[in-house]
């Protein structure tokens, strides 16, 4: 066969993967397989079959899985963004099912994350630290949402009213620091919706950012539906106020989203007619 | 493009690493905009050098640095073949034959396709291989389609099924939204859908929508957070409780959002038929807002980013730009029915820079996206890219071209086409042609027959909306329309589905011939 779109491998890679194909065919599980799959993974960590076969071989040989974890530490740092690296660790930890191994893993992740703070598969530093370093880090905002609202109630956080007030205060402070930050606005909208808190409760905070008469047009760009408090009030007059802001976004401040804002206007007007 | 449009993203006097890299990127992008004197000519899609690039990859192959793609060989083939399709170039029979042979060598003896010869079966290469076969294959011996082993593929799919409705991407693999899209797309195209396969998939997808409106990679199965539950008896061989919380894992992301949304659209017939009441739901308005929020400002030449506060990247032209029409469809926005006849046909004459007249209902800036791809996405040596000054690569070449296509053509579900396909529908043949030996425990009753028909009709009713084409830089930059759910041309989508459902599709009337070049080309 004369394959299309071939890749020009090095001889070393070609030899190793040819050998690997032979092993898969024969079903061999031996220490030789562990050496070979490590060799392939080091040349190409995205070779998912080598990872899969390595894992099966480790189980078949009853290899000590904590030793495998330590061997993989260097690889994880080297290939920080390769999915397979982390998935392999997860399989090992699940198979080990041990508290010391889990603790060692957390310590390892902290070291690994110090290498790259923006890799969202590997949260380790607290989201608060990450947001202090960069208030625009969306992965950190997302992680914060998960930790505060979606992963069970932590000790000291039993009073959910208090938690909501704390989060609102935190987010407002971050918005005041740098208003042109969609991550923070999305978080604000997210916590209000999640806790079913009426948007009207933050009108006084939001209103200055939504003014069409602001001399600086900069912040207008992120002034969107949440940031537009008028819509959420009852009655036609406030809808007209919202429409006025949307028009200014569509025609002046955020022209890339012109069609979207016009859609919102149409939607709002048709809903008051009903 | 005038100066007043090019205000930088404000930093509020508070610079952080994100704002630094954003400012640097905007500066580079600005330098790729034409000067006032050049702007009149409009950008040119350098079709010839991109075709040469694709041809070099196809015939000569990929350089050594592509070793990292050794487990993604069907993708390299799909990206290249679909690149030719979008550029409107057909392949000779000899090349098609070689492509079919190359792809079939990746079929795993136990079902599905692997990323290379002798590699394990995996959902992602399975999708890429089937889509590539949709382009080069045909019915009959040597055509590739009849030797796709659907029975084993179905067993492979079911062996990956998890309690929460999701699927692993391979044995001992992880759950990944991309894998769900790949599986559902392949099962749709190859007439393999059953209620057993689809069970729990809508609930899983809905659980992956984040507070931002887009979708994350996966969600935590509920039991993760119940370890300390005193009611539990400690044995973790569990009864999965579908109503326990399943928070999304990972922030809203363009690639996962496309996969989730396209799958959600594909699931509509299943939701209609199998959930007479209380069907799971997603927040469609939040999805639409998130998608449109991802489009960059003029200083970013209107390209799309994949996550909030990240940089624009040409590949999201397709994953996010191409997803807008899917969200519109879910919301029932601009499906063409209410367009006044006198408005039809207006757009075609206004392809130039001036007199741009928006007669369509598309909710993103189609002109700006085309400008990003044409000004910033093209590498001068051929192929397309993330952004300057990066090199081109196979992946970005396709997804920039597909994004350009999504910005030029508006392809939406058409009632008239649906009625035509329905009139020719042969349910008895479709049932006979379903994946052989696939005995669903629930039987193959009327409801499954209806599901099969509705999926076929829903999927193949997508057509280009008349009078809505837009070519920045003129019609010389035209590329082919693609099917918004599959990223195949409508012609290829129809051919492979007609084969696997045993249908003969009615000829498309000229007014919705989505992938035929305009006359005179």
From TrEMBL, chain A:
<keyword id="KW-0460">Magnesium</keyword>
<protein>
    <recommendedName>
        <fullName>Protein farnesyltransferase/geranylgeranyltransferase type-1 subunit alpha</fullName>
        <ecNumber>2.5.1.58</ecNumber>
        <ecNumber>2.5.1.59</ecNumber>
    </recommendedName>
</protein>
<dbReference type="GO" id="GO:0005965">
    <property type="term" value="C:protein farnesyltransferase complex"/>
</dbReference>
<keyword id="KW-0677">Repeat</keyword>
<comment type="similarity">
    <text>Belongs to the protein prenyltransferase subunit alpha family.</text>
</comment>
<dbReference type="GO" id="GO:0005953">
    <property type="term" value="C:CAAX-protein geranylgeranyltransferase complex"/>
</dbReference>
<keyword id="KW-0808">Transferase</keyword>
<dbReference type="GO" id="GO:0004662">
    <property type="term" value="F:CAAX-protein geranylgeranyltransferase activity"/>
</dbReference>
<keyword id="KW-0637">Prenyltransferase</keyword>
<dbReference type="Pfam" id="PF01239">
    <property type="entry name" value="PPTA"/>
</dbReference>
<dbReference type="InterPro" id="IPR002088">
    <property type="entry name" value="Prenyl_trans_a"/>
</dbReference>
<dbReference type="GO" id="GO:0004660">
    <property type="term" value="F:protein farnesyltransferase activity"/>
</dbReference>
TrEMBL record, chain B:
<feature type="region of interest" description="Disordered">
    <location>
        <begin position="337"/>
        <end position="359"/>
    </location>
</feature>
<feature type="compositionally biased region" description="Basic and acidic residues">
    <location>
        <begin position="337"/>
        <end position="353"/>
    </location>
</feature>
<comment type="similarity">
    <text>Belongs to the protein prenyltransferase subunit beta family.</text>
</comment>
<dbReference type="GO" id="GO:0004660">
    <property type="term" value="F:protein farnesyltransferase activity"/>
</dbReference>
<comment type="function">
    <text>Catalyzes the transfer of a farnesyl moiety from farnesyl diphosphate to a cysteine at the fourth position from the C-terminus of several proteins. The beta subunit is responsible for peptide-binding.</text>
</comment>
<dbReference type="InterPro" id="IPR001330">
    <property type="entry name" value="Prenyltrans"/>
</dbReference>
<keyword id="KW-0862">Zinc</keyword>
<comment type="subunit">
    <text>Heterodimer of an alpha and a beta subunit.</text>
</comment>
<dbReference type="GO" id="GO:0005965">
    <property type="term" value="C:protein farnesyltransferase complex"/>
</dbReference>
<keyword id="KW-0677">Repeat</keyword>
<keyword id="KW-0637">Prenyltransferase</keyword>
<keyword id="KW-0479">Metal-binding</keyword>
<keyword id="KW-0808">Transferase</keyword>
<dbReference type="Pfam" id="PF00432">
    <property type="entry name" value="Prenyltrans"/>
</dbReference>
<protein>
    <recommendedName>
        <fullName>Protein farnesyltransferase subunit beta</fullName>
        <ecNumber>2.5.1.58</ecNumber>
    </recommendedName>
</protein>
<feature type="domain" description="Prenyltransferase alpha-alpha toroid">
    <location>
        <begin position="45"/>
        <end position="487"/>
    </location>
</feature>
<dbReference type="GO" id="GO:0008270">
    <property type="term" value="F:zinc ion binding"/>
</dbReference>
<feature type="region of interest" description="Disordered">
    <location>
        <begin position="226"/>
        <end position="247"/>
    </location>
</feature>
<dbReference type="InterPro" id="IPR045089">
    <property type="entry name" value="PGGT1B-like"/>
</dbReference>
<dbReference type="InterPro" id="IPR008930">
    <property type="entry name" value="Terpenoid_cyclase/PrenylTrfase"/>
</dbReference>
<dbReference type="GO" id="GO:0097354">
    <property type="term" value="P:prenylation"/>
</dbReference>
<dbReference type="InterPro" id="IPR026872">
    <property type="entry name" value="FTB"/>
</dbReference>
